[in-house]
Amino acid sequence: MFKNYLKIAWRNLVKDKMQTFINLLGLTIGTVSCLCIMLYVFDQMGYDQYHQDPASIFRVRSEVDGSGANGEFNSLATTSPPVAFDLKEDFPELEQVTRVVKVDIFNVDIIKVSGAENGFYESRAYLADSTLFEVFNFKLLAGDKKALNEPSTLILSSQLAKKMFGETDPVNKVVEISGYSGEPNKLTVKGVFDENYGKSHLNPNYIISMDTPGLGAYVKENNTYGGNNYVYTYAKLKKGTDPSELAAKLPSFLESRAGNQLSERGIRMKLVLQNIQDIHLYSKGIASQIEKVSDIQYLYILGILAFFIQLVACINFINLSTARANKRGKEIGIRKVAGAEKSSLVFQFLSESLLLSFFSILISIPITISLLPIINEISDSALTYPDIFQLPILISLLSLGAITGILAGIYPAMVLSSLETIKVLKKETVKGSGNGTLRRALVVFQFVLSIALISIVLIIWQQFNFTQKKNLGFQKQNLISLELNTEDARNNYESLKSQYLNISGISEITGNWFSPYENINASRELYLKGQNPENAIGTNINFISEDYIRTTGVSLLQGRDLKETDENQLLVNLATLKAMNIEKDKALGTIVLGEGNEGPVEYEIVGILDDFHFASLKNPIEPLVLIKMNNPRRMLLRLESANMGAILANMKQVWKATIEGTPFMHSFVDTEVEQMYEEEKRIGKIAVFFTILAILISALGLFGLVSYTAEQKKKEIGIRKVLGASVQSVVQLLTKDFVKLVLLALLIATPIAYLFTNRWLQDFTYRIDIHWWVFALAGAIAMLITLLTVGAQSIKSAIANPATSLRTE
Amino acid sequence: MLLELKNVFKWVQSSSNPVFLLKDINLQVREGEFISIMGPSGSGKSTLLNVIGMLDGFNEGEYNFMHESVHSLKEKQRANLYKEYIGFVFQAYHLLDDLTVEENLEMPLLYKKVKSGERKARVADMLDRFRIVGKKDLFPAQLSGGQQQLVGVARALIGNPKLILADEPTGNLNSKQGEEIMDLFKQLNEEGVTIIQVTHSEKNAAYGQRIINLLDGRMV
Asked: Could you tell me the CA-to-CA distances from B56 to A18, A124, A380, A667 in Å, in that order?
């Protein structure tokens, strides 16, 4: 019997080619979208599950309010250095703790084989306690778990080991790491780990023993709470320990360990436990993540989008099948008379939709494989085709096929199988078979989705454009930032500067610590002379060299730029004046104080800058002070000529002649600024993708529906034409219903899209206003597509010779 | 007694007055009879046939079929009854266009859950008996009208019905083809199958042993 169903289903699919094509195309597009998103979602899930008993491993993170008053707590992924081992001392229920520090938050160091000429800028350098392996699973390809026990040791990722040592065994070889300052650190390689083993929120390139001079030693010796929040603290609980009980004891732990020092410094602090399996997807709002994390909400949104696309394709199937019930009427009648029960007819029709949905799965697999590069580019992941053939994906895909087939097929099956035998056999027209209202509602739903998506895409695009075009308060075009990450490079700043100024096409040069696209994560508390230090205002601080204003194009409102001889002179922006309650006209010459290493330091305000966007437009412009530094970490160069290639080649040549062992690394400020909005760009791209798909599938469905309507009304059109109807009036007859549906959909879609985009825009301090015309435009686009789809078919039937259509009746 | 209709009325409500399709029909059919129903267009011939075939219901009266009171049966039981005992032949043949001759014959057996082996045997038997073995893999559109109706009759017979209901079985055929079908009916009747046919043609009606004339839904 089942074989029989399949045979009939197949013949029906082959017979009605247009309907099958529309359905198959729609379902395949839907399935491909679902598959791509499934791949991505599975890729984002299951982080940090490969460790031993992952449910018992927690990241201890802190919430800190350093405002002195009752301000807001900042959620941080990190803690102060001593937290980890103090916890271990106080809580016997902890099996082990470990700390990880990312070395290159400020500065990417150069690593090279000792004695070799060339080094590499390698990011993602971690410092870790020797207990790292007792908390986390690492697959060591060389060396053992004692690798980080000794001072001045490190382990390399297999990729880095290969890059540095080729095929030779790196174990016990010595490497040199040149940091921001001081002599290079000599470290011994004690192991190699497989960086592709397991998905983890930790993604080190190399790991240095905490027991190493420099930052590691500083972390080990540091005993203060509340500050230095750059340490990632992990704790593994003993079996049977209830994490919530442990969490409840943390406030008293903080009180006993650091109550005094925190209250003296006016810092409020909390410790929070976060299971490591939650870090990758449930870290929204937690700052200072060690590596990029995702957000479960994105996965939900993507899932919903994929579901909608599939739904739109299912709707096509439902609409076309029920609309064409007439065609199947006779068959249904005969089968019933021959003894078919309703249930067997339902199964027969379901097998048609199931056959179609499973067929679309088969097609979608190779299509998805060929789309992988695009998916990887959009999602910034590294999916490969074996990822598709994982069991969970295949199971999900099969369930998707079954659900799609049933979702699309069950309603038409019910409608078709309950047609009355006698009526269909008597050839009474099964008018509006199925439910015309339902069909219209489903079409409206498709339009709602299309219009909402079009408006959302338009608004995302406008906002993105806004972030790119907005005057940031400095000139980001033709500005190059050059990395002077090593001591050697920084010491040669002046020499480089004078040589570079001789290159034609370079007009201005300055230096700074954070280039304009970099997140300024240095701050200083400042207060007015004569005021209580407790009322100090937190400001962002950046360090600059001479000619900063001329080079960047920041606008100076009063005063002057910093000179080489300046030491405690400040440039401030308007936001700083506002925060410190200084009148603009009286600001010049004002003395402000900040805590230095040896008591308060006096600073004099010598210049006032207009507010400029040194951070993302998502954030408001915060107080910023600029202070002089002679050996900056970045050189900024203003170019005049468009001949970048030649200028860069010249620069490189000068660099090689002046500086040894430090690679030449440059970036274009405008490109880097654009990178700040990478996420928005990606969302925009995905939204465009889905919008096009939704519109395409809906249009296909419309086309099918209108051709059916035209076919059904063939006789009516013939009679009307014989009686003198014009082509135009016939086209109107066929299109006016759809036009009404588009208008209705526009009414429904507008508030939905408005609410959604309005919420999204709240993330930006600087954002566009949502204009009414966006929705009008979206409606117009939908209307245009509808008219094109429906119109072509309508005109075709309207100009047909009535004689032929009437004769066949 | 194969079936009996007692005081059967059927009407549809149009605006205020009911329009009667069947009025006070009293009919007894014995096993082995061959009955022709005649009457002008709209006199209720097809309606009566559909009521007998249980494809259509009625509003008043009693209908007993093989000692079952059809009027008190539920939809599903009624369907089971006609599947078991009645075969239908239509004026427009009503073969399934997507199925071959062989598959068309097999279809009712599938719904009766007849086992594969027996199905094959019965289909082969029927193809043989109607001398259409050579056409078994053709689709209905590849057959002439007479051949299609031959398949239609074969399909009606394949479930071994006691009663065959034929609604103008020769209406779409030329006279020669029509005659062949009527001869076939006659032969089937002689083998013991009860036949009720609706027809416009006096000549065809004459094949039956009894003629029922209808006018405006009433037997005359």
From this structure: 36, 80, 65, 83
Chain B closest-CA separation from residue A690 CA (Å): 38
Q: How confident is the model at residue A550 (pLDDT cuts 50, 70, 90)?
A: very high
CB A134 within 8 A of CB A236: yes
Q: Looking at the domain assignment, is residue A439 inside a domain?
A: no
Question: Do A238 and A93 belong to one domain?
Answer: yes
pLDDT band at A809 (very low <50, low <70, confident <90, very high): very low
Contact A333 B94 (CB under 8 A): yes
Residue B143 near residue B173, CB atoms below 8 Å: no
Residues spanned by the domain of B177? 3-219
Cβ–Cβ below 8 Å for B50 and A422: yes
A215 and A86 fall within a common domain: yes
pLDDT digits (tens, 9 = 90+) for A393-449: 999 999 999 999 998 889 888 888 888 777 777 665 555 455 678 888 988 999 999
Q: Which two tokens stand for residue A620?
A: 């408001």
Asked if A198 contacts A52 with a C-beta cutoff of 8 angstroms, the reply is no
**Looking at the structure, do residues A450 and A552 belong to the same domain, yes or no?**
no
DSSP track, A277-339: HHHTTB-TT-B--SS---BHHHHHHHHHHHHHHHHHHHHHHHHHHHHTHHHHHHHHHHHHHTT
The answer to whether residue A6 sits within a structural domain is yes
Of the three residues A642, A670, A698, the one that is the final residue of a domain is A670
Q: How far apart are CA A711 and CA A136, in angstroms?
A: 68
Q: Where in the sequence is the domain holding A636, given as residue range(s)? A: 479-670
Q: Are residues A804 and A756 in the same domain?
A: yes
Asked if A12's CB is within 8 angstroms of B98's CB, the reply is yes
Residue A349 falls inside a structural domain: yes
* CATH number of the domain enclosing B91: 3.40.50.300
Identify the bridge partners of residue A185 per DSSP, sorted by sequence position. A177
Q: Which residues from chain A sit within 8 angstroms of residue B48, using beta carbons? A: none
Contacts of A12 in chain B (CB under 8 A): 98
**C-alpha to C-alpha distance for A718 and A798, rounded to whole angstroms:** 9
Q: Which alpha helices (H) appear in A659-771, and where do they start and end? A: 669-675, 678-712, 714-722, 727-761
Cβ of residue A339 closer than 8 Å to a chain B Cβ: yes
DSSP calls for A555-609: PEEEE----TT-SSEEEEEHHHHHHHT--GGG-TT-EEEEEETTEEEEEEEEEEE
pTM of the model: 0.79
Under DSSP, is residue A198 helix (H, G, I), strand (E, B) or coil? coil
Q: Is residue A286 part of a domain?
A: no
Last residue of a domain, one of A279, A312, A334: A279
Under 8 Å CB pairs connecting chains A and B tally to 43
Assess whether A202 and A242 both reside in one domain: yes
Structural domains counted in chain A: 4
For residues A557-595, b (16+ Cβ closer than 10 Å) or e, as one string? eebebbeeebeebbbbbbbbbebbebeeeebeebebbbe
The pLDDT assigned to B186 comes to 93
Report how far residue A40's alpha carbon sits from residue A670's, in angstroms, rounded to the nearest whole number: 30
Other CB atoms within 10 Å distance of the CB of residue A780: 15
Chain B 147-186, residues with CB within 8 Å of chain A CB atoms:
155, 159
CB contact under 8 A, A422 and B55: yes
Residues A464 and A538 in one domain: no
Q: Is the pLDDT of residue A319 over 60?
A: yes
Is A421–B55 a contact, with Cβ atoms under 8 angstroms apart? yes
Task: Specify the number of domains making up chain B.
Answer: 1
Tell me: do A430 and A451 sit in the same domain.
no
Per residue in A93-135, pLDDT (tens digit) is 999 999 999 988 767 788 889 888 788 888 899 999 999 999 9
Identity of the residue in A11, A340, A421 whose CB atom sits nearest the CB atom of B111: A340
A330 contacts in B (CB within 8 Å)? 94
Q: Domain check: are A751 and A772 in the same one?
A: yes
